[in-house]
């Protein structure tokens, strides 16, 4: 029991570090606002979530964003972007973890990834309208955005960004999982 907990803590720490490094290799997607950066840091969080459970995936997301804020900071002075990344990551990985852990099939994994992408896209649009965009403008000391401006930014930038990011991560993770499936299943079996 104790050995398994230590192994999980070490794995979550390593996956968090890998997620942070992957977060540093972000890039803009052509045609979208340049402040929206795509990265692959959800991949280690997904691995943690399907092997060790949803709490491990949440921990990877949390540690990754704390490291990012602690090392690179934020242009607003507060971690609004990191909090948004944390929430988006959780919205993406939790459906995958819950669906896959009930039945360990590629079909369930794929359904979870698609559902996670849709959930992240919808909820981040709503959260950007209600909390995130107003917080950015407030902390920057800028004039508040009108509802119409926020809706336009969400529909033309944030929603497509989350849909594209979720799709890219989904395709990448399925390809990675297909190669790592025996190892992943062995890890899951050892956790049971």
Give a structural overview:
This protein is mainly α and about 190 residues long. The protein has a single domain (about 1-25, about 40-190), classed as Orthogonal Bundle (Arp2/3 complex 21 kDa subunit ARPC3), CATH 1.10.1760.20. It has 6 helices and 2 strands; from the N terminus they run αββααααα. The chain has helices at about 1-25, 40-50, 55-70, 80-100, 105-140, 145-190, and strands at about 25-30, 35-40. It has a two-stranded antiparallel ribbon with strand order 1-2. A hairpin with an 8-residue loop joins strand 1 (about 25-30) and strand 2 (about 35-40). Helix 2 runs antiparallel to helix 3 (about 55-70). The longest helix is centred in the C-terminal third of the chain and has 45 residues, at about 145-190. It is globular. The chain starts with a helix and ends with a helix.
What's the total helix number?
A: 6
Order of helices and strands: HEEHHHHH
Question: Based on the structure given, which CATH architecture is correct?
Answer: Orthogonal Bundle
Percent of residues in helical segments?
over 70%
3D shape: globular
Reading off the top of the CATH hierarchy, the class is best stated as Mainly Alpha
The fraction of residues in strands falls at under 5%
Residue windows where pLDDT falls under 50 for at least 5 positions: none
Side by side, the strands of the main sheet go 1-2
Radius of gyration: 17 Å
CATH topology: Arp2/3 complex 21 kDa subunit ARPC3
Which class of secondary structure composition applies to the elements? mainly alpha
| Biggest sheet record | 2 strands, antiparallel
Distance between the termini: 11 Å
Total domains: 1
On the 0-100 scale, what is the average pLDDT?
Answer: 92
What is the tally of beta strands?
2
